[in-house]
């Protein structure tokens, strides 16, 4: 049996040996949209006017409506009652899997976290050691620089006058290594001099 | 927000908070509808059951990213449509005979070449019983392409308007209008000879 209706429609249906090439007419599109309640009020009015006047259009609509209604004859196949349960079981498995993966990821992340913490601690230790080393070096240098002063601290204390110490430094009294005794002598001499000059002034 | 008035959206929001009871409730409400659409789109009961399960699993997996936008059913059938498209694609990659539904043995395959002459031979002489009408309607649906079939199922059995079907199928409403028009014209071409007989059965 061969039944052919020529059409340019790309969505033609193939029914076994029937070659059904159905042409979609503008009227059919209009009628289907009308039946589906997808027309605006203006087009509804226009369609209804045409339907009241054109018997051919009415027949077309009736056939379209009847063939569409034939689809209601399809029985409703009840879904397998165990489907909900089996789906919920799969969902439970999915949750379990998700949790397991979550734990696994957490454990996998633990190692890098531990390494990162260790690295930070080590880095802090190295930086701290360096800072302390620099500090100690600067203290040592300071002590080294101050050694000559420290060595003669007793004499400086004995002099007690800072301006006078400056005077003595100008005279290069502290430049050469002198014995305590010699410095003492020098100091006595120096101390004696202003007194003499004062006397002279008097 | 309009979608929050949808009780199913509220249920889905509970599912987002890992409420298993809400998920079960959604499954009970929708699994039959999803299964029915997928059964007609794929033509296989077993495959439709697997896909229905897949749809709900996808929904559950996507629960944390769910944001209430459109109606819940629109979102659900969008997922169902994607699942069906993927399944039909992979099914097509495997060499397989063209199929139509057959009565109780839901997974059995029969070529249209065989079934049509058999049915057409019945046409002029006697009334069709409801089972035969059903077979013919199934066969007519099987002749539609995947998109047409999905659009018909959503429009006819889910009562979706063109805008909703368009959203589910990621098309424009105008494209859905044309798609449904072609589908219904094709259905009319196949089913028109049976209309009178169907009337007799009903009467």
Shape of chain A: rod-shaped
Helix content of chain A: over 70%
Give average pLDDT of chain B, whole number: 80
The quaternary organization reads as: heterodimer
Structural class of chain A: mainly alpha
Explain the layout of strands and helices.
The complex is a heterodimer of chains A (202) and B (203).
Chain A: E1 13-15, E2 18-20, H1 26-35, H2 41-53, H3 55-70, H4 82-151, H5 153-159, H6 162-170, H7 180-201
Helix pairs in contact in A: 1-3, 2-3
Chain B: H1 7-16, H2 20-42, H3 45-61, H4 72-93, H5 112-122, H6 130-142, H7 146-156, H8 162-169, H9 173-202
Helix pairs in contact in B: 1-2, 2-3, 2-4, 2-7, 3-4, 4-8, 6-9, 7-9, 8-9
Write up what this structure looks like:
- Chain A is mainly α and 202 residues long.
- Chain A has three domains: 13-73, no CATH class; 93-145; 152-192, no CATH class.
- Chain A has seven helices and two strands.
- Chain A has a two-stranded antiparallel ribbon with strand order 1-2.
- In chain A, strand 1 and strand 2 form a beta hairpin.
- In chain A, helix 1 packs across helix 3 (55-70) and helix 2 packs across helix 3.
- Chain A is rod-shaped and about 150 Å long.
- Chain A starts with 12 loop residues before the first strand and ends with a helix.
- Chain B is mainly α and 203 residues long.
- Chain B folds into two domains: 1-96, Rna Polymerase Sigma Factor, Chain: A; 97-203, Arc Repressor Mutant, subunit A.
- Chain B is 71% helix and 0% strand.
- Chain B has nine helices and no strands.
- Chain B has helices spanning 7-16, 20-42, 45-61, 72-93, 112-122, 130-142, 146-156, 162-169, 173-202.
- Chain B is globular, with a radius of gyration of 19 Å.
- The N and C termini of chain B lie far apart (48 Å).
- Chains A and B meet through strand 1, helix 1, helix 3 and helix 4 of A and helix 2, helix 3, helix 5, helix 6 and helix 7 of B.
């Amino acid at each position: 049996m061969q039944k052919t209706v020529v059409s340019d429609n790309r969505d033609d249906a193939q029914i076994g040996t029937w070659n059904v090439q159905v042409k979609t007419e503008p009227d059919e599109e209009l009628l289907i949209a009308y039946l589906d309640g997808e027309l605006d009020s203006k087009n509804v009015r226009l369609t209804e006017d045409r339907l009241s006047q054109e018997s051919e259009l009415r027949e077309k609509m009736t056939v379209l409506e009847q063939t569409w209604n034939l689809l209601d004859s399809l029985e409703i196949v009840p879904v397998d009652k165990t489907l909900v349960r089996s789906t919920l079981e799969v969902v439970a498995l999915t949750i379990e899997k998700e949790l397991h993966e979550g734990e696994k990821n957490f454990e996998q992340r633990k190692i890098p976290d531990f390494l990162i913490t260790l690295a930070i601690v080590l880095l802090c230790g190295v930086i701290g050691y360096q800072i302390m080393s620099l500090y100690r070096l600067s203290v040592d240098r300071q002590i080294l620089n101050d050694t000559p002063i420290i060595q003669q601290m007793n004499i400086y204390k004995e002099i007690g006058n800072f301006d006078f110490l400056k005077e003595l430094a100008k005279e290069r009294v502290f430049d050469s290594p002198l014995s305590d005794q010699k410095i003492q002598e020098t100091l006595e001499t120096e101390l004696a001099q202003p007194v003499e000059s004062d006397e002279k002034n008097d | 927000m309009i979608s929050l008035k949808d009780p199913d959206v509220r249920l889905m929001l509970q599912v987002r908070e890992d409420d298993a009871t809400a998920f079960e409730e959604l499954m009970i409400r929708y699994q039959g509808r999803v299964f029915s659409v997928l059964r007609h789109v794929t033509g296989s009961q077993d495959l439709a059951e697997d896909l229905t399960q897949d749809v709900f699993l996808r929904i559950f997996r996507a629960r944390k990213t769910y944001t209430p936008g459109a109606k819940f059913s629109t979102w659900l059938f969008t997922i169902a449509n994607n699942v069906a498209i993927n399944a039909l694609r992979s099914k097509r990659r495997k060499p397989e005979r063209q199929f139509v539904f057959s009565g109780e043995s839901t997974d059995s395959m029969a070529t249209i070449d065989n079934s049509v002459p058999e049915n057409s031979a019945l046409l002029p002489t006697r009334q069709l019983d409801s089972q035969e009408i059903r077979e013919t309607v199934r066969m007519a649906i099987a002749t539609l392409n995947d998109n047409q079939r999905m659009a018909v199922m959503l429009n006819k059995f889910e009562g979706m308007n063109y805008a909703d079907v368009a959203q589910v199928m990621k098309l424009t409403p105008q494209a859905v209008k044309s798609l449904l028009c072609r589908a219904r014209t094709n259905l009319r071409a196949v089913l028109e000879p049976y209309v009178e007989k169907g009337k007799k059965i009903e009467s």
